[in-house]
Amino acid sequence: MTKQVIPSELLGNISGELIQLAEIVEGLGEALCGDEQVLSKHLSQLQSVDLVSQSLRCQAGLLASDNAIADIEKVSLQDLQDRLSKGLECLR
């Protein structure tokens, strides 16, 4: 089976879509945080909403990167960085 190279234009488009999703998720989180009752009852879930947004932005950045392999080390979410790095073990 031959591996297919994904054109950089498509990767850029996918990156842009992930950024748009991150913005939607952030807006949802901000709206929910504006409600004191929701905030007090669902703080950990709202933190998860923020985590999803951050993860989407990190992954979008990697897709748009000229050197995604090197840039995995710059991923600010350690758990995500660890999971992504495991996929590189075959290259070492």
What does this protein structure show overall?
The structure is a single chain. By secondary structure, the protein is mainly alpha-helical. The chain has helices spanning about 10-35, 35-40, 45-65, 70, 80-85. It is elongated and about 55 Å long. Helix 1 runs antiparallel to helix 3 (about 45-65). The mean pLDDT is about 95.
Briefly characterize the structure.
This protein is an all-alpha fold and 92 residues long. Helix content is 73%, strand content 0%. The protein is built from five helices and no strands.
How far apart are the termini? Answer: 22 Å
Oligomer: single chain
Radius of gyration over all CA atoms, rounded? 16 Å
**How many strand segments?**
0
Write the layout of secondary structure elements.
Blueprint: H1 8-33, H2 36-41, H3 43-64, H4 68-71, H5 78-86
Helix pairs in contact: 1-3
Give keywords.
single chain, 92 residues, mainly alpha, 0% strand
